[in-house]
Amino acid sequence: xxxxxxxxxxxxxxxxxxxxxxxxxxxxxxxxxxxxxxxxxxxxxxxxxxxxxxxxxxxxxxxxxxxxxxxxxxxxxxxxxxxxxxxxxxxxxxxxxxxxxxxxxxxxxxxxxxxxxxxxxxxxxxxxxxxxxxxxxxxxxxxxxxxxxxxxxxxxxxxxxxxxxxxxxxxxxxxxxxxxxxxxxxxxxxxxxxxxxxxxxxxxxxxxxxxxxxxxxxxxxxxxxxxxxxxxxxxxxxxxxxxxxxxxxxxxxxxxxxxxxxxxxxxxxxxxxxxxxxxxxxxxxxxxxxxxxxxxxxxxxxxxxxxxxxxxxxxxxxxxxxxxxxxxxxxxxxxxxxxxxxxxxxxxxxxxxxxxxxxxxxxxxxxxxxxxxxxxxxxxxxxxxxxxxxxxxxx
Length: 395
Description:
By secondary structure, this protein is mainly beta.
C-alpha cells in the first residue's frame, strides 16, 4: 500500500495540468499562474463561468470565476518572461494557442485542459503571430508561414510561405468572410490584404497605405485596424478597404478597444472613438485619467471602466451618466497596488472586473451602480519568478 501511494504521488507530481478537484490542496500550487497578460471571460459547458488566462510566463490557465481557483493549468516549456503572453483564440469546445517559438499550435480541451492535438506550422521561430478560428477552419500565421486547417484535421489544407519576413500579421472576420492583413519588412507604410477563400487559399485583394505605419502603435479589433502617429489616429476599415484619419487633442500613448469602440489614451485623458457604418469614426467623449489609472471597455461596449488603487469609475459611452465607487483595501494599513490592466464585462446586475496590479496582484471585483460599492470577490497574490521556477521543477 505504501509503495502504491508513493507511485501515485510521483505520477501526480509529474503532471503540469492542475485540475479543479486538486485546486486548493496546496496553496503554493494554487497561486502559481503567473502575471496575466491576456484574460477573456468564458463559459465551459453547463459549469460556472471561467477566466481563460495567458500569462507572461507562458502559462495558459482556466480559473473558476466565482472563486479564483484553478480549473486547470498548463505550463509551457522555456518561458521567456516576456510581457505578451501566449497568442490564443477559442471556440465552444477548444482553446487554440501558438507555442512561444511560433513553431506549433496546441489545441486544448476547454473543460479539463487536456491536449487534444499538436499541429506543426513552421520550422522557424517567430514572434510575429496571429490565430483565428471559424466554425470550420483554423487560420494560423507565424513569421513567414500562413497555414489553414480544417477543424479536427492535423494536416493543413493550405500552406503559404512568404519570401519576405513579415513585421505584422492579423486576421479579421465579418460574417463568413476572413481577411488576413500583413506588413512586409522594408515595405514602408503599406499593408497587404488577402481574402481566405472557402477552400483555404489566400487571394490578394489590395495594398493599403498607412502613413508612418508602425505595428507596435496599432491595435486589432474585429473589422478594424487602428494605428497612431503622434496625435493622429488612423483607422483602417478592413472590409471596406478604406482609411480614415482623426486628429485628436493630445499625443496618443496607447490604443485599445473592443467592438466598435476605440480608446486612444494620452497623458491626461482618453478619447472614446466610435465607428459606425453610417458615420465612420467619431469622437464620442473624453475621459480624464491620472498617471496611476488603468482603463478598458466592457465586452458589451456599453461603458468604459477606469480603475485606480482607490476607486473604480464607470463612464457610459452613449450618455452623460457616470459614477465612482470606492475600492476596499486589501488589509488595514495596506494600500491596493496600482492597476496595470483591467478586463471587464457588464451583466444584468452589476459590472464584473478583473484588475491586474503593477505587482501582478489579481483581484476580481463586482461593482453595483445603485449602492456605488466595489465588492472584492477574491484575489490572488503577486507573481514571484523564483517561486515559479521552483514550481516548474516540482509540479
